[in-house]
Amino acid sequence: MKVSQGLAAVFLMAGLSGCVTAEQANQAYASARPATAQQKAGIISKVRNVFFDPYSIRDAELSYVMYGNNGRGVVCLHANSKNRMGGYVGRSYTAFLLDQSGAVISSDDGPGITRDCADARLRYMPFPEAEKL
Fold first, then answer.
1. Among 86, 77, 84, which residue's Cα sits nearest to residue 59?
2. 107 vs 5: CA distance, rounded Å
3. Are 59 and 80 in contact (CB under 8 A)?
4. Strand 53-63, strand 104-108: pairing
5. Based on the structure, what is the number of domains in the chain?
6. Would you place residue 21 in the very low, low, confident or very high pLDDT band (cuts 50, 70, 90)?
7. Under a CB-based contact definition with an 8 Å cutoff, are residues 98 and 45 in contact?
8. What is the DSSP string of 83-124?
9. Cα(11)–Cα(22) distance, integer angstroms
10. Residue 1 placed within a domain
């Protein structure tokens, strides 16, 4: 399942509501928590499968996890990695949708993700685990 309309679509999938209001989005950002070790391990596993060259990741940061009403979560990875031409492309965002148990369901790096993952309300922490693949 691929997310295509930014975190608003992810919020819908995560079950925040049928329509995400500004107040609901603010609440999701405010109640975000750091990812657990289990969630980080799931993200690392998914990164190995979705990044072209996961071993080249550097400058990685992981956002706090935002949770929906049904327990699903959304977390953003902000990192630099090599593309198919072998060059670094600059730091970009990838969003991961987590199920109630914290397992990664899907990921997306579409244009809406950049806008939403770059939101100043979302807190980030260094994610050295992604740089040690």
1. 77
2. 12
3. yes
4. unpaired
5. 1
6. confident
7. no
8. -TTS-B---EEEEEEE-TTS-EEEEE--HHHHHHHT-TTS-E
9. 12
10. no
Strands (E) located in 52-103: 53-63, 66-67, 73-82, 92-98
What is the C-alpha to C-alpha distance for residues 71 and 80, in angstroms, rounded to an integer? 30
Domain of 43 in residue numbering reads as 6-132
What pLDDT is recorded for position 132? 93
Task: Please classify residue 23 by burial: count the beta carbons closer than 10 Å to its beta carbon, then call 0-12 exposed, 13-18 middle and 19+ buried.
Answer: exposed
Say yes or no to pLDDT of 35 above 80: yes
Can you tell me the distance from the alpha carbon of 90 to that of 83, in angstroms, rounded to the nearest whole number? 10
Residue 42 to residues 17, 39, 47, 53: CA-CA distances in angstroms? 25, 5, 9, 17
Angle made by CA atoms 99, 12, 19, in degrees to the nearest 5: 155
Residue 64 lies in a domain: yes
The one-letter amino acid at 109: D
Residue 38 located in a structural domain: yes
> In the block, which residue shows the tokens 């990685």?
60
Structure tokens at 75: 């977390």
